[in-house]
Structure formats: structure tokens, C-alpha cells
Design a protein that fits this description.
The chain has five helices and three strands, in the order αβββαααα. The chain is mainly α.
Length: 143
């Protein structure tokens, strides 16, 4: 069963939120790996959402090239109720990961003990491992 138009608009918002969280985590992780410091470092958005709530359009970009373009109506016909619930669960998980990420990154640069710093770095790597699979989880649902 496909979802209603209002739910499709919400689903587009969920995907936008997921990509934003993933970009935030991925960008700061890459910056940390390069420089050893934690900074806000925007990463290239793999996916972009355009339009407003009433005329929401889902546009997937890969290296700046459009790979998918769906209107809210097309998105509604693409997703099932189970897909929508899956996106909601993914967003909840990514918000939890983002909170953990921010907590660790606030403390890592203040850490003077090399052993404790190493433990925090390992936690960041574990979180990044979970985060980097997100695009595949999303693409399983929306393509």
C-alpha cells in the first residue's frame, strides 16, 4: 500500500534530516582525521531536497549530478507505510548517534591523557561506521 501525500511530504523531510545528520557527522569526522581537531566541516551533500512542504520535490544528487527526481506524488507512490516507518526509525537512530557524536567531539580535544583520547577516537570511528552506511539504508527504501 502506498502512502498519502501528507505522509510523503513528511517522508521527504525525514530523508532531508537524515542526510543533514549524516553530512554533519561525516564532515566533522573527515576533518578530525585530517587535522586532529574537531571543526564544523560541511561535506558535499549526496542528496538534496528542494521545494516547500506543499510542493516538496525529492532530488538526489551524486557529485552534483541529478540521479533521481520525484515529486511528492511520485514519492507517495514509491513508498509503503513500512518504508515510512523505517525512515522514522532511521532518523531516531541518527539523532541518537548525532548526540553521542557531539558529546564525544566536545571532549576529545580537551583530553590530555593519550589513552583516554585514543578511546574517544575509537568511539568516533565506531559511530562513523554506523553513519557511513546510512545512504545505503536510505537508497534501499527510495529507489
Amino acid at each position: 500500500m502506498v502512502i498519502e501525500l501528507a505522509t510523503a511530504a513528511t517522508a521527504i523531510g525525514l530523508v532531508k534530516s537524515l542526510i543533514g545528520l549524516d553530512d554533519m557527522i561525516g564532515g566533522t569526522w573527515m576533518q578530525f582525521k585530517k587535522t586532529g581537531t574537531v571543526q564544523d566541516a560541511p561535506q558535499e551533500h549526496r542528496m538534496q531536497i528542494t521545494g516547500d512542504a506543499e510542493n516538496a520535490t525529492f532530488v538526489a544528487l551524486e557529485h552534483g549530478e541529478e540521479t533521481q527526481h520525484d515529486t511528492r506524488e511520485q514519492f507517495a507512490n514509491l513508498l509503503t507505510k513500512e518504508d515510512f516507518e523505517y525512515l522514522e526509525a532511521l532518523e531516531t537512530k541518527m539523532k541518537q548517534l548525532a548526540k553521542q557524536w557531539m558529546s564525544i567531539t566536545k571532549n576529545i580535544e580537551l583530553q590530555m591523557d593519550p589513552g583516554n583520547k585514543y578511546i574517544l577516537e575509537q568511539k568516533l570511528d565506531q559511530l562513523m561506521g554506523t553513519s557511513k552506511n546510512l545512504p545505503y539504508f536510505i537508497s534501499d527504501v527510495i529507489q
